[in-house]
């Protein structure tokens, strides 16, 4: 089984995790820039973090046979620091042109403040300028209202809905997100957000189109093998190999390939270089 | 060291025509206004290519040049004397491929030893591609002896093949040979293996106490240490310079 985990904060994970992920089928992933559990206080910390996502973490993943991509952006929690918000937004363009940077993100709302809205709108503009998709995180609290507000802002920004992945959905937000034309992401967590059994029910309800499943593993209680566990739960529930491959590989590839910056062309296993719907999506260059 | 003409010719033979056109236009833009390099430098891989510069090279070989390495060198060369002012920022904001391009370009730029801090930074990383790129002809010419010796030791430690280094064996010093000899002893005492190529360095200035210590392990009371000593010493003739 080939797995593309479209949301994994590998900076927080160990080499044992990389080994286990490879063993489970993970061959490529996306690490969205986020916060580190403790607020940063200077723009230099962001520069070093972005550089480590593009440099060291990509190298580290490569040692375990996993192709690492990232998204770059200012997260909503730290967007509430006025000085930092301006400084980080200023340096983002230096990172958004790079290979392997497959979206602006993760951006979105945390406590639904004006500062968060300002940062979100600015970064949706940057996504349009750099021809990148955007990865938007929906708030953990007041989720339904936050999701609705996010969809409104995407519409206002002019970013095409198919360039937008709205993450951390649940049974109550998925319909509205799909109706908007955006992609709907689900973070499968032990205990919170979503679990694999509920994910199977969502898939039975809405089908596989524009659905993306991730582990969102980070420094909190989380499990880097949740995408595989979801695939296993899908199989037990009667989904066939093609449905599973669509959810755990082709859908995230299709979404992030819109960046033109996925680097999957030299992954060794021949099955990974198969074309998607007749077009060579596994290339670094936009056709 | 390849000449700029060699690099251009290899690129012509290997890169896509549209990539070569892009490089030509971008070189002209950079020659006219050096700040044009800032936004273009990250794009080189997807515009010109990322495969090895020479078809027969192994993409997994950290010493192998890539198409984007050569293209980045030519872009920096196109900037002429104004390249120097851009180097630090291109490196600081560069991903690993961009940093490698900067490092590979240093010997082609009129900067004398003023690029050494970038070499030092790359050697401090644990990224084998950066370490390999840092130890090219520029390091051979400018890196002080003690730093060069430490870098060679680090290569062996992190798994960068030293046979492909530009400065091997010419830059080897007696102290470098001693440190690698001691490293081999440490590995043998742990029952572990070493790459055979270490003898290229060690046997340039054979350090007697360290070699005696390795040979002494042949009589160790522990089987794994005796076996490790035998293996390490068995590589000796084949790899001595």
How would you summarize this macromolecular structure in one to three sentences?
By secondary structure, chain A is of the alpha/beta class. Chain A has helices spanning 15-24, 43-54, 56-63, 76-79, 82-96, 114-129, 143-157, 174-180, 196-206, 226-236, 241-257; strands at residues 3-5, 26-32, 67-72, 101-108, 134-137, 164-167, 183-187, 211-214. Chain B has 241 residues and is mainly alpha-helical.
Describe this structure in words.
The complex is a heterodimer of chains A (287) and B (241). With 287 residues, chain A is of the alpha/beta class. Chain A has a single domain (3-273), classed as Metal-dependent hydrolases (TIM Barrel). Chain A is built from 11 helices and 8 strands. Chain A has helices at 15-24, 43-54, 56-63, 76-79, 82-96, 114-129, 143-157, 174-180, 196-206, 226-236, 241-257; strands spanning 3-5, 26-32, 67-72, 101-108, 134-137, 164-167, 183-187, 211-214. Chain A has an 8-stranded parallel β-sheet, with helices on both faces. Residues 270-287 of chain A have low confidence and may be disordered. Chain B has 241 residues and is mainly alpha-helical. Helices cover 62% and strands 0% of the residues of chain B. Chain B is built from 16 helices and no strands. The chains are: A alpha/beta (287), B mainly alpha (241).
The unreliable regions of chain A are: 270-287
What structural class do you assign from the helix and strand content of chain A?
alpha/beta
Number of strands of chain A: 8
How much helix, percentage-wise, in residues of chain B? Answer: 55-70%
Q: What would CATH call the class of chain A?
A: Alpha Beta
Radius of gyration of chain B: 21 Å
Counted beta strands of chain B? 0
Number of domains of chain A: 1
- Report the mean per-residue pLDDT of chain A as an integer: 90
Can you tell me the CATH superfamily of chain A? Metal-dependent hydrolases
Most extensive interface between two protein chains, with residue counts: A-B, 20 and 22 residues
Q: What fraction, in percent, of the residue positions of chain A are helical?
A: 40-55%
How many structural domains of chain B? 2
Euclidean distance between termini CA atoms of chain B: 20 Å
> What is the rounded distance between the termini of chain A?
28 Å
Largest sheet of chain A: 8 strands, parallel
Beta strand % of chain B: under 5%
Averaging pLDDT over every residue of chain B, what do you get? 95
Question: In DSSP terms, counting alpha (H) and pi (I) runs of 4 or more, how many helices of chain B?
Answer: 16
